[in-house]
Amino acid sequence: AYGYGFINPSPMAYPELREFYYGERNSLSPEMFQSPIAVGVSSVADYHLYLLYTVAAIWRISGVSWSSLEPLLAFLLGWTAVAAYGLMRLGMGRVLSLLFAAMFILSPAVLGVVIELRDFSKAPFLLSILFVLGWLIKSRADGRRMLIAATLLGLLTGVAMGFRQDALVFAPLAFVVVFICGIRGSGNRLWYGLLSAFLFLV
Predict the structure, then answer these.
(1) What does 52-118 look like in DSSP terms, one character per residue?
(2) Which residues pair with 65 in a beta bridge?
(3) Most buried among 7, 14, 16, 80, by the most CB within 10 A?
(4) In whole angstroms, what separates CA 70 from the centre of its chain?
(5) Residue from 33, 30, 26, 27 nearest 11 by CA
(6) What is the per-residue pLDDT across 117-140, written as a single tens digit (0 to 9) for each?
């Protein structure tokens, strides 16, 4: 966000940064970092690259502060609500789906974790993956719809893994579902299932 590249400043060398990490202060100023920057080691950062780049882009524009991430949290919460509604619609009517989706979004479990960006950022991706999987199983998609769904599912899974590695657990399931649904939707043509699985992996 301050133009120093993808580095991990050591909290031990910068008391203000340590306070920022613990939520004791809302923002940081670029003046506190003077070259050369003391760098720490963090293996955790390597597993959240897309999330880190997203936050860095926001902070580059609006300045480094926790409050500047509130629009991102609101977007993720809204996306989660839409994905939850879509998932409910696979087996319920509009009214019940809307009711249960609202109950889910307003539940203490969701509201309690929504401010934890690292943990909550995976929620819309995982629910969207489940929705696409459910739609594939229920709709018997064929032709272009199947190929588009396989590509979308691969994109969702890949980006989700860049936010949180938890999404990796869905990859084998998604691969099998895409392969089987591709064969089923094409009239038992094996090559179509293989093409669908290939698009998912790509």
Answers:
(1) HHHHHHHHHHH-SBSGGGHHHHHHHHHHHHHHHHHHHHTTS-HHHHHHHHHHHHTSHHHHHHTT-HH
(2) 27
(3) 80
(4) 16
(5) 33
(6) 988 999 999 999 999 999 998 988
